[in-house]
Specification:
With 243 residues, the chain is mainly alpha-helical. The chain folds into 2 domains: 85 residues, no CATH class; 111 residues, Serine Threonine Protein Phosphatase 5, Tetratricopeptide repeat (Alpha Horseshoe), CATH 1.25.40. The chain is built from 13 helices and no strands.
Length: 243
Amino acid sequence: MNFFSSVVLAILALGFAQVSFAQEDFEDLRILYMDGDYEKLIKKAERYTDKEDTRKSADPYLYLSKAYYEISKLEEYHEDYRPDKAFRDALKWAKKYRRKDAEGALYAQNDLYFRELKESALREAAGQMAEEKYSRARRYYDAISDFDPEDPGAWLMLAYCQMKERNVRESELSYTEAGKVMHASDLSKLNSVERRLLLEGVLNYSDYLVSEGKKDSARATLNLAAVALEGDNEFDMAVRELN
């Protein structure tokens, strides 16, 4: 075997080893999650987030979010973990996860988890909104917009809460981001949870625009959301009232 052939084989072997490592990467975390051993999963995943060679990987942060979310739901853990605190930790780690997965590759693979997490966050936010506790509700919408920056309803509701808190500058920035997402996204592909959030967001925003004497902008907002919301009774009524 000549020198060139040896070098090629060495490169191929190294590449194969790297692929094999990638395939097995964080398999221990997956097994712990599947086994429901959430406390051990938290300890192991946290160690990965502290290690230099794995701290930039998104997987450990995602597993931490999943572990805390399951703990928040299971009564057997509630003596040692307050459910509300565990749920907030699930959101915290979901936000940190997305910073490591800017393109959302793992998000797409874990769509069902994030849909459930989002739905739980919206239930918490709804309770705070009903009591007009906008600063507390804002935290949930802020979390959703962090771990799913392509959710237009989350940006709209975040902006609405910021406006209610009289944080005008931040509200304007969030409304601007909501507009960018709405124009860039195929709203017809939103799932049922995202559609409900978008409905709440556009109705609140259009009401605000009308109160500011900006009916044309309110119509434009509703028209933009029509592809996702047309046929909903509340949405159709809002459209009729503006026309």
